[in-house]
Amino acid sequence: SAVISQKPSRDICQRGTSLTIQCQVDSQVTMMFWYRQQPGQSLTLIATANQGSEATYESGFVIDKFPISRPNLTFSTLTVSNMSPEDSSIYLCSVLLRDRSYEQYFGPGTRLTVT
Amino acid sequence: QKEVEQNSGPLSVPEGAIASLNCTYSDRGSQSFFWYRQYSGKSPELIMSIYSNGDKEDGRFTAQLNKASQYVSLLIRDSQPSDSATYLCAVRSNYQLIWGAGTKLIIKP
Questions:
Q1: Contacts of A26 (CB under 8 A, 6+ apart)
Q2: Of A16, A34, A35, B43, which has fewest CB within 10 angstroms of its CB?
């Protein structure tokens, strides 16, 4: 598998501010994903981030609200902009390993609370 | 709309018994199927992947796939209290995973 780290692990932010979440992988991966998970709910895909191209956003998520950077094959960031309490959630970074039969692995997550 | 269906539970199983978790999917063209375990407050952990019809065993876990019935299951033998978690079924569609809502499993000592 891959070792995936995320920073910060948790944060409490005020309404209207922005938070940037970092995701670091210990190996080069082409495809990275950002998910959101509300308490007691399943995973919701925010966007797919491929190195060298613009991120692809899922329905209901827009670049102005969730800008993503993917500067190289081991790193990505997700920014949650102009936050509201509805953005309180766990944000998860995930990578697809082609040399592991396209298995997908997750980072430990970032627990965000917006007050 | 591609869907993955799971019984949300909770499923309560006595310690030492077999826990059986089920999942159905709508996309007949799906080729890759995964089971993740998620403890409360933690991220999903991949425990089984299966790609062809039949059974795949790994320790106490057995994944079963029936593409004709569009059905995938996970059996946990000799269930332990540490198996108590939410189990997520995921089906690959192109490069994305379609997720079930998860089944909460409770193993009672």
A1: A2, A3, A4, A74
A2: A16
Helix (H) or strand (E) holding B105: strand B103-108
Q: What would the two tokens of residue A5 be?
A: 């780290």
3-state secondary structure of A98: helix
Q: Hey, are the CB atoms on A103 and B34 less than 8 Å from each other?
A: yes
Question: Which of A50, A19, A52, A17 is CA-nearest to residue A36?
Answer: A19
- Interface of B to A at Cβ within 8 Å reads 32, 34, 42-46, 49, 51, 88, 90, 92, 95-97, 99-102
CA separation for the pair A57, B24 (Å, rounded) = 26
**Cα(first)–Cα(last) distance of chain B, in Å?**
40
Cβ neighbours for A54, distance < 8 A, ≥ 6 positions apart:
none
Residue B14's contacts (CB-CB under 8 Å, 6 or more residues apart) are: B79, B107, B108
Q: Do B44 and A106 touch (CB under 8 A)?
A: yes
pLDDT one-digit tens code per residue, B38-81 = 999 999 999 999 999 999 999 999 999 999 999 999 999 999 99
